[in-house]
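Sequence only, no structure available. Ideas?
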Amino acid sequence: MVRRMATVREIAELAGVSKSTVSLVLNNKAGVSDELRAAVLRAVAELQRRQSADMPLEEGEGRVRGLSLMVLHPPVLRSSQVFSEVLQGIEAAAEQFGAQLRLAANAPDAGDQHIAHLYLADAQLRPDGVIVFGARQHEPLLDKITALELPCVVLGREAGKYPVSGIGRDEARHAAALTQHLLDLGHRAIGFVGGETHYDYTHNRLKGYRDALTAAGIAPREAWVQLGAGDAATQRLLASAPELTALLFVNDSYAAEGLRVLSAAGVRIPDELSVASFDDSDIARLHEPPLTSIAYERFREGQWAVKLLIEQLRTPSLVRAHLLFDARLVVRASTAPPRLS
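Reply:
I predicted one. Tokens follow.
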């Protein structure tokens, strides 16, 4: 039997409120009195208690009775496909182990009444373990999780900054490999486009790009690197670095923004400019021409995040562990040797 999260209807019926009130409380929205908010949270806790009491222990299936896992995800998802594939892996493993999942947005500036904070602050609501999906450099909720000594696995970010387990990638090496692909084609003026500085992957991919150019004896001009939104960054590159023959986008979501700018400017890919990216999402596969990209095993990363968390809960002597997933370079028609001038 897989333990499921209580539905909005069940919570509303037990609390004696409307479903819209429950939705407002669970999403930490205004417009609900303190009395009604408390009634909803009591109903959530009671339904969880009932489910825990009814959940049998199934032998031989690797299941853990009454296990509750919280998944903290970024409040703004630039790529719903990336999140969806990771979440599918998390859900598949949670079902395998009979664990209940709770999803909550990880908003760094959220107040103490945000649902994620309430889950951690209330002992009755507190999960057995937490998966943090996202790659911000500073995570206030991670500080709270580690202070509570809750088993935790971070996914899609560097784990070494916190005393927690992690599912990681060698982002710098993957970025160096993608840059080397462009170098091997003969490109010597390669731009790096997009990304926000508060995300680990931006810094790590930028490092790999710079390392590969340095190893090739190329000193990138300052104008070759433009961070921020993909469209604005691409516009700045076109204006300040016309010598570029190839662009490396920080990921497919930023590439989608930048490609619209290139199309509007009449830039032909790859005849005038080779383009490569990260994530290998549908954006890369369906673009014309399809984009050369770094492909990650997002579903398996999600699965292993749950497996690693379960092992920590089962094995008290397992303090933490880090797993590193490889990636593969998928070469497509968006990259070609530079056109001779």
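The first helix runs from residue 8 to 15.
Hope that gets you unstuck.
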